[in-house]
Recover the amino acids of this structure.
């Protein structure tokens, strides 16, 4: 009874904070003209700026190619969805208020999906712990509702808020990514496929998420290392079956799935993916038919991302590098920089294959660190997902350092930008220094979170080994 | 943090040297922070010794390499202008427009393009985020009263050799309603140079002479002109207001012609503001240079150096720099100077190569100058109309020339005009030589290398302290807490709430200003009361809901966590401020760093009755007293200006002035200093 009341209270608490975050966003949107966030390079990149989208829509309305003049580089579908909203003005309200409301809805939806994913992950994890007889571990220290925490971290993260208020399309991109992860977690193949196709179509980099998604669909959500299950099974089989053992064996027969790769959802997923892919391509083809066709589209969107044509300063490290590099080395370094992301895919996939969702998180951090036009919206996504592992990462090192670093960098970088661009007392190096510090922070975050996760696995293994010994004696 | 934990688990294992070094430093962190702080303060005191001689880094400038061409002919023309202006003033023609017409007449006689620019005075508005945005976002024009407006007169000479893309600006502020002799003289100097420059062949940059109407303040006039120069208003509010006002006037057509004919030259390479002080000097003609723009930003060092070089070596003017006069009579400073002098002698005896000693008198004077420049930079208020240029990335200085005798002695006045004119001519000639922008990229230069050392030493110790205070906490609570490495979250939340409160406190004066008939003292009291009230409310609202997650965990040694989070907040704030306004960060660090590092609960100290603990209690109380911004202000004011006649209203006035200029120092006091002080007091009074 008391537990029920407690959970009800928690529920209420969650909804209060959710409504609070929405209210804050609406207030900030109302004052968005004063804040002038949309012009900040940290928030709106050439890919995510809504101003550019409005420009592209205008070009399209006057029957020109929306990609003319290197203004717009996003997807044509987003253009036809958000474009009409940018053109509509309501008297007495800030510009683009309808788009802002769409972004608020996208943020709330993302938070809800994160919450559902978190619950799903937690239940699955609890089951596998039960299977390993490590329930005590989870009961000794009360498990935090990671879904709620992650959702609130996502909603209240200043990065998410400024990305939402600052008129960038990254809330929509984040929603697509979260949708795909949610679908994969719940093993809803059509949804997962739709999310992945949309995310890839909108921002290209989520293409690498196909590996964790296949793992998620094949193995199910995160579990402790597979070896433990085998060990456990071996112990059970080897033991002379006593009564209570038998009972337990029956009870755990059901969740025996975790370490078997089931191909069915994966095949489903691939089938649906191809279906959605064809659908999206056809839609794109229709909308850009008279402006040079699909090839032109790819060149203007994905080509623009991969060849780093816009060298205006942003939070990443690539603009500075490619402004300096000699032209004949440019192609080589483009390959090196993008290869950097690809190099890390396989080793990480092998090491973390038992935790596909965490693997997806790591991929997202890496790609948002090395992508060509990063913005705070990307950080908002991975920081929100980090909240999902709050129980596993309780021992993470340098958490305070990272916290202070993120605050310091996000305050320093506008100041440095101002010194460089408006005051003229600084130069490009000032701003780039904060970009480098930011990249370093992300590296530390990814290294520390992975090592904390591996330590957690080690701890589980130790506990399970003592359990097995106990069982034998 | 991580190190300390691993060390707890396996103390026997031989550790790497760097880890052992770290542990050694952590265990002696108190001593270390005291040493670092003292080193920082000592370095600050040594700065006059370490100052370097300035030099001109841009070779193209070549100051003083050409003979001055300004002759008595130009001077006599300028004398005519001065006489006309003063006679106009004596006649009291009332309308300011007469004098402007006169000046415009003189300008166009020289063949310059003349235009007028009309502007409306703007009440000072608070733009807290002004620093983070472009200058144009601050152009909110409202409440313009049509009857009061100022009129700037602008004359432009097109360079015979230039492509019209660059320009040098001369500014002479004057009050059109009452022209003093000093203002007339400054106009005379500018006029003599201007008339020379219409004839010379070497001019490669256009010359703009702005006669700024200082009826509503010098800064406002120059700022209005610059805004029109850089941000043309094509449509919208500005024009509409202007049109609205035109309806009220008779000679609309001529006014419109004036306004439409807003003339531009190229981008500005440099700007010189010329003023002549009304007061007279005792010994010789002297020149004061004012350079501080908003938020302590300084113009390029080369510009100041040229002026300095030409004034001293060519025109024989004495350069005066602002000083804290009260420091000159300071006993302990003199003693320190003498000690340093004797140390210098000693060093010279040991090795003749070591030359760092300076005479005690020089040292005292250097310290006084340094203090005053630090203070004026830290205030963040521009010291003259040159500050307006800095917002548009133009290097500018104000030159205030004061003559020896103020009498209307004809020959004396001619000589004065000649010297002033030649100085300006030389500076313009140097700037004219420039091929590109000034490129010496100093903006902390008044105290260049030595200060960076100071800041480094002082900022180093928070990190050590942080480790120290985390160390006992991690040792104390072993396992059993869920968020082991995240246990700082609660303290971080508290710090965040207090900083939010700081933002609220910052906004309060905006509302208090609206209360009519308030003396400074009452507004200050109202402000304090409202602040306390808002602090209570904020704790009541934000203190409760989040805490139930952590309610189960007893926060052991909570104050240590709180202290470490406070120190890191102070560290981030000081880092940020040192980029925006270094002088503010320096003064702030002097007050805040010892306070944050020393903070320790009184209860614990009083319990263990030792001398060391009692001294810490005394230190804490003293630092807590001096760290509170109003008391700090009043104490320093009392020390420098005497204690009689001081009231808390002074603090309010001071704060209002930096608020009106939207200085970043205001934000610093409210968002960083005050919250950190509150948190330190919280730690000191912690119930443990």
């Amino acid at each position: 009874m008391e537990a029920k009341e407690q959970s009800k209270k928690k529920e209420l608490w969650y909804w209060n904070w959710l409504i609070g975050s929405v209210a804050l966003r609406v207030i900030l949107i109302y004052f968005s003209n004063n804040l002038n966030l949309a012009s900040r390079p940290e928030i709106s990149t050439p890919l995510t700026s809504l101003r550019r989208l409005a420009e592209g829509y205008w070009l399209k309305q006057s029957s020109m190619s929306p990609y003319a003049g290197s203004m717009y580089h996003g997807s044509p579908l987003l253009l036809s969805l958000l474009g009409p909203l940018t053109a509509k003005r309501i008297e007495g309200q800030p510009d683009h208020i309808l788009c802002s409301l769409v972004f608020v809805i996208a943020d709330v939806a993302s938070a809800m999906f994160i919450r559902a994913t978190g619950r799903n992950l937690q239940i699955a994890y609890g089951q596998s712990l039960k299977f390993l007889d490590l329930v005590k571990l989870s009961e000794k220290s009360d498990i935090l509702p990671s879904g709620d925490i992650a959702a609130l971290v996502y909603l209240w993260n200043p990065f998410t808020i400024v990305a939402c208020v600052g008129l960038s399309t990254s809330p929509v991109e984040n929603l697509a990514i979260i949708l795909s992860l949610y679908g994969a977690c719940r093993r809803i193949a059509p949804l997962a496929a739709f999310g992945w196709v949309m995310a890839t179509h909108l921002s290209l980099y989520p293409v690498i998420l196909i590996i964790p998604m296949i793992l998620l669909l094949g193995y199910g959500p995160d579990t402790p290392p597979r070896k433990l299950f085998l060990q456990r099974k071996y112990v059970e089989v080897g033991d002379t079956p006593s009564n209570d053992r038998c009972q337990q064996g029956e009870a755990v027969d059901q969740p025996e799935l975790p370490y078997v790769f089931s191909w069915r959802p994966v095949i489903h997923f691939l089938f649906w993916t191809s279906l959605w892919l064809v659908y999206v391509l056809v839609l794109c083809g229709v909308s850009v038919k008279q402006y040079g066709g699909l090839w032109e589209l790819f060149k203007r969107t994905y080509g623009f991302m991969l060849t780093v044509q816009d060298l205006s300063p942003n939070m990443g490290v690539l603009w500075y590098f490619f402004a300096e590099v000699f032209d004949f080395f440019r192609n080589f370094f483009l390959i090196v920089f993008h290869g950097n992301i690809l190099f890390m895919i396989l080793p990480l996939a092998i090491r973390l294959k038992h935790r596909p969702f965490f693997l997806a998180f790591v991929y997202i951090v890496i790609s948002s660190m090395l992508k060509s036009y990063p913005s705070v919206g990307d950080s908002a996504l991975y920081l929100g997902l980090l909240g999902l592992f709050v129980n596993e990462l309780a021992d993470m090192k340098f958490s305070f350092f990272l916290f202070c670093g993120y605050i310091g960098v996000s305050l320093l970088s506008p100041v440095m930008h101002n010194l460089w661009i408006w005051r003229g007392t600084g130069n490009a190096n000032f701003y780039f220094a904060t970009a480098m510090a930011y990249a370093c922070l992300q590296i530390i975050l990814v290294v520390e979170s992975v090592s904390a996760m591996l330590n957690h696995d080690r701890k589980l293994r130790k506990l399970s080994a003592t359990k097995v010994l106990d069982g034998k004696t | 943090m991580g190190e300390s934990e691993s060390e707890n688990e396996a103390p026997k294992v031989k550790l790497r040297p760097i880890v052992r070094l770290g542990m050694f430093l952590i265990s002696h962190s108190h001593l270390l922070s005291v040493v670092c702080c003292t080193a920082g303060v000592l370095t600050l005191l040594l700065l006059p010794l370490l100052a370097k001689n300035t030099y001109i880094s841009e070779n193209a400038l070549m100051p003083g390499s050409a003979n001055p061409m300004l002759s008595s002919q130009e001077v006599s023309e300028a004398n005519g202008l001065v006489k006309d202006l003063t006679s106009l003033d004596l006649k009291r023609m009332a309308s300011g427009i007469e004098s402007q017409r006169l000046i415009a007449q003189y300008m166009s006689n020289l063949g310059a393009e003349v235009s007028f620019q009309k502007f409306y005075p703007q009440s000072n508005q608070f733009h807290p985020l002004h620093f983070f945005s472009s200058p144009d976002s601050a152009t909110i024009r409202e409440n313009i009263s049509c009857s009061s407006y100022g009129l700037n007169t602008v004359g432009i000479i097109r360079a015979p050799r230039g492509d019209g893309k660059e320009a040098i600006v001369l500014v002479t502020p004057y009050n059109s309603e009452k022209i003093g002799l000093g203002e007339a003289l400054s106009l005379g100097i500018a006029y003599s140079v201007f008339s020379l420059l219409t004839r010379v062949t070497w001019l490669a940059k256009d010359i703009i002479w702005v006669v700024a109407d200082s009826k509503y303040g010098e800064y406002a006039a120059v700022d209005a002109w610059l805004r029109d120069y850089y941000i043309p208003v094509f449509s919208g509010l500005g024009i509409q207001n202007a049109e609205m006002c035109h309806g009220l006037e008779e000679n609309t057509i001529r006014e419109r012609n004036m306004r439409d004919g807003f003339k531009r030259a190229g981008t500005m390479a440099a700007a010189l503001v010329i003023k002549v002080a009304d007061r007279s000097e005792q010994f010789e003609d002297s020149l004061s240079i004012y350079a501080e723009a908003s938020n302590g930003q300084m113009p390029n060092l080369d510009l100041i150096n040229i002026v300095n070089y030409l004034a001293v070596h060519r025109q024989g003017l004495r350069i005066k720099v602002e000083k804290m006069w009260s420091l000159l009579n300071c006993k302990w400073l003199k003693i320190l100077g003498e000690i340093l002098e004797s140390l210098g002698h000693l060093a010279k005896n040991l090795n003749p190569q070591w030359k760092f000693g300076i005479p005690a008198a020089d040292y005292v004077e250097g310290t006084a100058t340094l203090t005053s420049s630090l203070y004026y930079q830290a205030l963040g208020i521009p010291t003259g109309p040159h500050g307006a240029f800095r917002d548009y990335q133009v290097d500018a200085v104000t030159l205030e020339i004061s003559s020896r005798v103020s009498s209307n002695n004809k020959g004396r006045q001619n000589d004065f005009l000649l010297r002033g004119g030649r100085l300006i001519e030389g500076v313009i000639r140097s700037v004219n030589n420039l091929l590109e922008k000034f490129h010496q990229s100093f903006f902390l230069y008044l105290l260049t290398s030595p200060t960076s050392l100071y800041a480094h030493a002082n900022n180093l110790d928070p990190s050590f302290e942080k480790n120290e205070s985390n160390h006992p906490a991690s040792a104390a609570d072993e396992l059993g807490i869920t968020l082991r490495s995240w246990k700082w979250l609660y303290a971080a939340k508290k710090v965040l709430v207090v900083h939010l409160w700081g933002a609220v406190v910052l906004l309060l004066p905006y509302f208090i200003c609206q209360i009519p008939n308030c003396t400074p003292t009452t507004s200050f009291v109202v402000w304090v009361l409202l602040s306390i009230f808002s602090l209570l409310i904020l704790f009541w609202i934000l203190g409760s809901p989040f805490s139930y997650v952590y309610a189960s965990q007893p926060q052991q040694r909570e104050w240590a966590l709180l202290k470490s989070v406070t120190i890191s907040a102070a560290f981030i704030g000081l880092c940020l401020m040192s980029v925006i306004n270094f002088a503010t960060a320096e003064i702030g660090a002097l007050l805040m760093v010892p306070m944050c590092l020393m903070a320790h609960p009184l209860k614990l100290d009083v319990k263990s009755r030792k001398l060391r603990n009692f001294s810490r209690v005394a230190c804490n109380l003293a630092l807590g007293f001096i760290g509170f911004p109003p008391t700090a202000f009043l104490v320093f004011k009392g020390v420098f200006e005497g204690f009689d006649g001081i009231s808390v209203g002074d603090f309010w006035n001071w704060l209002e002035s930096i608020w009106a200029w939207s200085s970043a120092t205001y934000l610093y006091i409210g968002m960083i200093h005050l919250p950190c002080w509150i948190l330190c007091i919280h730690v000191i009074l912690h119930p443990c």
